[in-house]
């Protein structure tokens, strides 16, 4: 039997879980906290650390594993189709793909009904040009909006 004593803590846990899931998925610690945040250029040291992390074998294996797991879940639940994918799965898979392919970037990703918003910085025009294609490769993405600046890391 559900009592008020058990219902209120459970409700709080549900609310905490849903609000926690609405944060932007970030490619690095220097990425904006949300896609509504002001774009800041990362420091040289931070960009180097992020690039080293994103290109390390362990991190690449983690990113590829995350992408594979989300694709497998989509294949199991949606028969591989791009329908009914959760916004969190889309945002997380996009973030993983961007982090794996655009080292030294500082990007935040959110998704809503298949529309993906990417905000932050990349160090080169070549990386900027790759964002749209990388994002559209993810099943369930219906549109891409970007507030991304090309900004080489700044000296400390």
How are the strands ordered across the major sheet?
1-2-3-4
Taking all Cα atoms into account, the compactness measure Rg is 17 Å
Shape: globular
User: How would you state the average pLDDT, rounded?
Assistant: 77
Question: What is the tally of helical segments?
Answer: 5
Sheet-strand content, in percent, reads 15-25%
Secondary-structure element order, N to C: HEHHHEEHE
Terminal-residue CA separation: 59 Å
Portion of residues within helices: 40-55%
Structural class: alpha+beta
SSE map:
Blueprint: H1 4-20, E1 25-26, H2 44-55, H3 57-78, H4 87-101, E2 106-112, E3 115-122, H5 125-136, E4 143-150
Parallel strand pairs: 3-4
Antiparallel strand pairs: 1-2, 2-3
Helix pairs in contact: 3-4
Can you give a write-up of this model?
By secondary structure, this protein is of the alpha+beta class. 50% of the residues lie in helices and 16% in strands. It contains five helices and four strands, in the order H-E-H-H-H-E-E-H-E. It has a four-stranded mixed sheet, with helices on one face.
Which descriptors apply to this entry?
single chain, 156 residues, globular, 4 strands
In a few lines, what is going on in this structure?
The chain is of the alpha+beta class and 156 residues long.
């Amino acid at each position: 039997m559900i009592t008020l004593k058990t219902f209120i803590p459970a409700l709080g846990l549900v609310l905490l879980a849903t609000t926690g899931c609405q944060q932007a998925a970030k490619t690095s610690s220097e990425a904006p906290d949300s896609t509504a945040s002001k774009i800041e250029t990362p420091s040289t040291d931070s960009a180097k650390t992020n690039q080293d992390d994103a290109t390390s074998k362990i991190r690449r294996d983690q990113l590829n594993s995350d992408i594979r797991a989300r694709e497998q879940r989509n294949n199991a639940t949606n028969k591989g189709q791009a329908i009914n994918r959760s916004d969190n799965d889309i945002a997380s898979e996009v973030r993983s793909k961007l982090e794996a392919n655009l080292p030294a970037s500082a990007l935040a990703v959110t998704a809503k009904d298949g529309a993906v918003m990417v905000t932050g910085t990349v160090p080169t025009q070549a990386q900027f040009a790759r964002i749209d294609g990388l994002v559209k490769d993810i099943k369930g993405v219906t549109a891409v909006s970007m507030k991304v600046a090309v900004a080489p890391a700044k000296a400390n």
